[in-house]
Each structure stands twice: as structure tokens, then as C-alpha cells.
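It is worth pausing here to work through a concrete case rather than discussing structure prediction in the abstract. The textbook approach is simple: state the sequence, then state the predicted structure, then interpret. We follow exactly that order.
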Amino acid sequence: MKEKKEFVCYDCFKLRTCKESLASWIFFFIALVAVISLRAMSIFANSSPMFAKMLWYVGVGGFLIFFIYKFRYDQILQRELEKTDLKDKLLSKKELTEHDKEVLGTIVCKLSSKKDKINYFFIFVSSGLALAIAIWVDFVK
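Step two, the predicted structure:
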């Protein structure tokens, strides 16, 4: 008989606050390195093709690792949402169990993550810089 795995919140409720795990920070930094690498790649494409290629591998490899982690984490939450039928309970205003509240709290913690805001900021700024530098190199210089 297969033993049922218990839902474990790695980011919130085991700590009783919305503190994020060390693993989530490690994967966050992997994503930042990937963002910067892919944006920097265009800067070095003409002057150092080998370095640009290395940046491409670091960027794409980093995103691969990061998105595998994010997908796995999101799949865990998705399974819990399906198992608890939380959406229907909320819409019909049914009583929530303690476990339902933990799952809901995990989702709220995830949505309030500062890491995602920082990640979006880095993507926006580094994309803007890479675009400005590429335009300068290709059309102004």
C-alpha cells in the first residue's frame, strides 16, 4: 500500500512567517545570473564570440535549472489545490480546514515574495540596458 505524502510548506507555515527557504534563494540567484548572462551575451556577440557563447550557455542552463525548480514547486501547490478543493470552498464560502488555511497561506506568501519583484526588476533593467547598448553598437557607433 502506497503511503500518503504529507504536504510540507517549505517557505511559510513550518516557520510561522513568510520567510523563504535557503533553496529558494539559491534558485533565485541562479535565475539572476541567467538573466544577466543572456542580456550580456548581446554585448559581447561581436567583440568576443566565444565569451558570448559561454554567457549563452550559462544563461540558458541557469534558466533551465530555475524553471525546473519553479515548475516542481508550482506542481506541489497545484496538487494541494486540487486535493483540498480550495477554490470551490472559497467560492462557496465553505468552512476551511487548518490544512486548507496552510495551503492558502502558502499561496499568499508566494504571491507576496520580494524575490519575484526583484527578478522582474532585473529582467526589465537588464533588458533595457542590453537593448540600449545593442542599438548604440549597431546603429550609432
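Step three, interpretation. The two ends are 69 Å apart (CA to CA). The first helix runs from residue 22 to 44.
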